[in-house]
């Protein structure tokens, strides 16, 4: 019975190597014990090394499983390594297993990945650095209590956002440090070891006092993101010490007007991974475009020429969502103006939809590429980039309130549904999602890439047929109006 000892709680590479060797040696999941070093001194670490490697045997799993496993392995549940191996084992004979969302293993791994993503979102949104040291020696420190093992996964976001300041994120499990060049990970610390000195404290205090004080001129409870946060999380914020008294005062002054806006932790737990926030339609697209111009929610802004925001009438009944701007779009600052845009325009016309009447946007609004000489090679956006950018899609959706959203390809579908959504399984039919109809179809670039002319013609026709569903829905509702 092999005992596999992984190097640490987030040792995905170790898990993958061991799982591959175990599977190639036909070791059934119930025969494997998974553990993490330092909990397991009593056990032999021989485990997987005792099994023969099979360097020539192949073992492929889908990129979706790898992505899911990378997230789920960060969950705090002890049996996560065993669950992932069981899934991998089952995937060998049941390739479609991940689509069986009611399967208990699949449901569990999805829920675990969602909880991890939620925790990463939480640290990104809530972490506050305190400044310690002075002038040349300034260092920024933040304390956080994550629910899962997410510090390493969350740290690159802070490295790109606060690239010029040396910082440390201290947690009970591990600590992450940025020295301006690289992230390093050390062991966790006790809260009592966290420095409390804070030059920024006064700034926070003033900021929050203003929000809570109706006489301040900037009183605006809607700006108080804390109100959307479970109270249990407030303790991580440096402004915690002032929140409760300020909140009580504000409630007294407003007759408790926002008392019922607080969200209890349990309620938040039941929400989706990335709950759709349908805001009031008071944002205009022009205002959103202006606000988004400074977006730094992911690192893609650094190399892109500019943000490529959505375009089209605010009254549009159809909203088309693509993947991300390409080279031409990045230079022009407009979506779908390159070769994929030409293909899209032709298909829309054949489907009886005027492009000028639809709102066209992308799931990710900065161009992601790698330079190859003079060429900039398109790179598919990763999940953190899609998730970081989703706020803009949500706000565009709230502003436009279209009758139908058309998701062009997998990245768009992931953004629209807030989770990975296979295109082929969902394409060509109207799906209700959060009160909006959604149609999933392929991305026009997929058609451009097909090498075989017959296949291209066939697939193009299927694409037009999908768009015709959108066209006829529009005509029906125009007729009914
Ligand atoms: N591909 C997209 O998804 N969007 C664009 O704007 C251009 C190409």
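Sequence proposed for the structure above (481 residues):
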């Amino acid at each position: 019975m092999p005992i596999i000892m992984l190097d640490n709680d987030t040792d995905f590479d170790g898990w993958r190597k061991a799982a591959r060797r175990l599977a190639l040696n036909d070791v059934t999941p119930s025969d494997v014990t998974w553990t993490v070093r330092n909990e397991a001194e009593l056990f032999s670490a021989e485990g997987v090394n005792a099994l023969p490697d099979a360097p020539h045997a192949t073992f492929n799993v889908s990129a979706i499983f790898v992505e899911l496993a990378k997230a789920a392995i960060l969950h705090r549940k002890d049996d996560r390594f065993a669950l992932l191996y069981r899934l991998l084992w089952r995937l060998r004979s049941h390739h479609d297993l991940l689509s069986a969302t009611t399967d208990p293993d699949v449901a569990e791994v999805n829920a675990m990945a969602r909880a991890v993503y939620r925790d990463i979102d939480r640290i990104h949104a809530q972490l506050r650095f305190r400044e310690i040291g002075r002038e040349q020696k300034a260092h920024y420190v933040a304390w956080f209590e994550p629910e899962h093992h997410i510090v390493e996964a969350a740290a690159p976001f802070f490295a790109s956002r606060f690239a010029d300041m040396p910082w440390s994120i201290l947690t009970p499990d591990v600590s992450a440090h940025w020295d301006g060049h690289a992230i390093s990970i050390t062991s966790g610390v006790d809260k009592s070891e966290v420095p409390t000195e804070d030059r920024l404290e006064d700034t926070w205090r003033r900021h929050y006092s203003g929000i809570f004080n109706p006489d301040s001129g900037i009183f605006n409870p809607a700006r108080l993101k804390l109100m959307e946060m479970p109270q249990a999380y407030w303790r991580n914020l440096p402004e915690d010490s002032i929140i409760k008294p300020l909140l009580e005062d504000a409630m007294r002054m407003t007759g408790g007007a926002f008392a019922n806006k607080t969200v209890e932790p349990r309620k938040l737990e039941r929400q989706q991974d990335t709950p759709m926030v349908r805001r009031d339609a008071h944002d205009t697209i022009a205002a959103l475009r202006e606000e988004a111009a400074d977006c730094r929610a992911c690192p893609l802004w650094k190399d892109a020429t500019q943000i490529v925001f959505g375009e089209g009438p605010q009254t549009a009944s159809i909203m088309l969502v693509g993947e991300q701007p390409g080279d031409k779009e990045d230079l022009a600052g407009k979506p779908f103006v390159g070769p994929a845009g030409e293909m899209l325009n032709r298909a829309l016309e054949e489907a009886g939809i005027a492009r000028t009447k639809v709102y066209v946007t992308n799931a990710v609004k900065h161009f992601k590429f790698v330079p190859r000489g003079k060429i900039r090679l398109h790179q598919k956006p990763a999940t953190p980039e899609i998730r970081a950018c989703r706020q803009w899609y949500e706000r565009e959706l709230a502003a436009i309130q279209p009758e139908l959203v058309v998701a062009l390809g997998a990245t768009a579908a992931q953004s629209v549904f807030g989770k990975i959504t296979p295109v082929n399984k969902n394409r060509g039919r109207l799906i209700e999602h959060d009160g909006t109809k959604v149609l999933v179809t392929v991305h026009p670039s997929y058609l451009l890439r097909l090498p075989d002319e017959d296949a291209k013609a066939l697939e193009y026709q299927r694409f037009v047929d999908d768009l015709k569903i959108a066209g006829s829905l529009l005509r029906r509702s125009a007729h009914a109006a």
